[in-house]
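User: Teach me something about this protein's shape.
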Amino acid sequence: MLTTYDEIELFGLTENGSDDLPLPNDDELQGRAVGEAFEALIGTLQGTGLGSEVEPLAYAFATMLQRRAVALDQAADRQKVKARSLIGSQDGSEIAEQELDETTRLFTILQEKADALKLMAEEAAQLYESETGEHYTPVTGDRTTRRAMETGAVFEAKKLLDAADRADAERNKVTGTKIAVAGDANWIDTAAIWRRLDVARERVPDMVLCHKGSRGAERIAAAWAKSRKVPQVLFRPNWPAFNKAAPFRANDEMLTARIAGVILFGGGGIGLNLAEKAEGKGLHVARVPKPEAQRAA
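Assistant: First, the predicted structure itself:
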């Protein structure tokens, strides 16, 4: 478990509880967080007695973001290694399971933050190059964001490692009838989901719950599976590799894994995409409408 000093090192002196808030989208990170900040800093100095400081300050701005991205990436890697170790040492106890859940949660948070900072760092690097005409080379780490690594050896190596991770997952896969769950991110009626999944389990005793780990309906379903001791397979979207298409790629991976059916809670574009693709393959899709109280809220 993290100590107070560990949390300060990773997250800074911030209030607890903010990790569940959504991250800004790519346009906000590139435009508002970096572009406007860069223009406010550099644009103010151009044509003044501080014009000679534009190049070093622009470089420092990009480097600050790059260093933070590297630190978060390294922290995420440590949690990934720890999670793999915990998987191998599970003894069925609740304490061990909670530690694994917390480690996995922290890895996800750190990885998402690292990806966001990498995007910001690459945007700042490109603004530096446009402003100064110089090539930006980071002091530490590599320029390994989506845009910087798209055609490089780093991208190929990452694909190889992802393939190895998938092979490990295949060797340790659970057996049973895979039922996928998808739904609205703002779904709050826990009881409705638990009732529907209880019915599904009665019909499919060897049920294995498949989902993407998204907020709302899918996390409620994950809590149900944990309570009922139903195996789960998580198809987490690969945001660094596929950007906004990541959840749709995760849907395709579920279909490739030969799910037997889908339970869709509500509408949502991503969940609807899975349902329509499943129906196109002749799979059964159970659609559970959102309760009236939620639709009116």
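Now, about its shape. The longest helix spans residues 94-132. The longest strand covers residues 177-183. If you'd like, I can walk through any region in more detail.
User: That's plenty for now, thanks!
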